[in-house]
Amino acid sequence: MIGDSTCLITNVEVKSPGSVHNSRIFRESTLCHSFEQVCDVLSTPSIHQAFDQTDIRCLVLRGLPVIFGDDPSDFFKACFDVDDEDSYSHVPVGILCREQENVAQHLQSLHLNPSSVGIILEGKVVMDKLENLLQAMCLLFGLTYALHLNYPKCMKNTFNFIQQSVSKSELKPKIQS
Length: 177
Prior knowledge:
With 177 residues, the protein is α+β, with helices and mostly antiparallel strands. It has one domain (2-176). The chain is built from eight helices and six strands; from the N terminus they run ββααααββαββααα. It has helices at residues 22-27, 30-42, 45-50, 53-67, 105-110, 133-146, 156-166, 173-176, and strands at residues 2-3, 9-11, 76-80, 93-99, 116-121, 124-130. A hairpin with a 5-residue loop joins β1 and β2. The longest helix has 15 residues, at 53-67. It is globular and about 55 Å long. The chain starts with a strand and ends with a helix. The model has no long low-confidence stretch (mean pLDDT 75).
């Protein structure tokens, strides 16, 4: 165990006879089992008939904050095309799905086919008319790095997981548990 000058633990190395690799710790974690369950559900033929591949990826992206204990309510925002900025003017960093008023209510809650997707920075839509949630998230990561922005506090675990998954670096202990 390694700690810093304020007595906070900064690193824990788990060892046993034969040493335990991080991938084994992750494979045996509840997080890994949760992902396997989600993957099993998403691989059923009935899901593939109801949704296309992009829709499934958007659903997974919307589910990650729930798995990691983040609160996506101040990150993922939705409004109708005719709405004003009041619903997202307080959002420092987020994604906006603009819905069509004639779409069924149960489909709106999923935000799978919004009329437009945008990126919110400091309460303003800085990019709009993106194809889908996945494209918006990728562009938001690019903006985060280009503008040296911090990850949104309400989505910190989710952003850390995505970053570490993409960069193939080790997951932080909090994310593994």
